[in-house]
């Protein structure tokens, strides 16, 4: 879940980072991903105590972005995916690429790549489609070029 970009959880979901209570630590990347997702102090709390927590707490600390009824999990996740799919593919790809670069190599590396990313988008047909849709006050139809 800490590797997800967006997480939808059922209101009755339970979570735990239990490794410390088993003589281990979150060796699968949790020590890196937890602070990025929830902030260092929230990460410490759950990585160091092994305490379980519910969906409301997961939402509060930022590792879950939406809490829904258990029967609404899949429809809510599909709705979120459809909203993302309606956006400009080049913009979505740039968001993912630049955010991942910031996580992997720091904000200076990501900031250094912004100009290349925006130039690629400004040279696309999709930017013109998006601006025209904005002027006409209608949703844009992007093609990824």
Automatic annotation (TrEMBL):
Taxonomic placement: Bacteria, Bacillati, Actinomycetota, Actinomycetes, Mycobacteriales
Protein name, UniProt field: Enoyl-CoA hydratase
Natural source organism: Hoyosella subflava (strain DSM 45089 / JCM 17490 / NBRC 109087 / DQS3-9A1) (Amycolicicoccus subflavus)
Keywords, alphabetical: Lyase
Family per similarity comment: Belongs to the enoyl-CoA hydratase/isomerase family.
Keyword Phosphoprotein attached: no
Classification via Pfam families: ECH_1
SUPFAM superfamilies on file: ClpP/crotonase (SSF52096)
GO MF annotation list: enoyl-CoA hydratase activity
Keyword Acyltransferase on entry: no
GO biological process: fatty acid beta-oxidation
Catalyzed reactions: a 4-saturated-(3S)-3-hydroxyacyl-CoA = a (3E)-enoyl-CoA + H2O; a (3S)-3-hydroxyacyl-CoA = a (2E)-enoyl-CoA + H2O
Stored InterPro entries: ClpP/crotonase-like_dom_sf (IPR029045), Enoyl-CoA_hydra/iso (IPR001753), Enoyl-CoA_hydra_C (IPR014748)
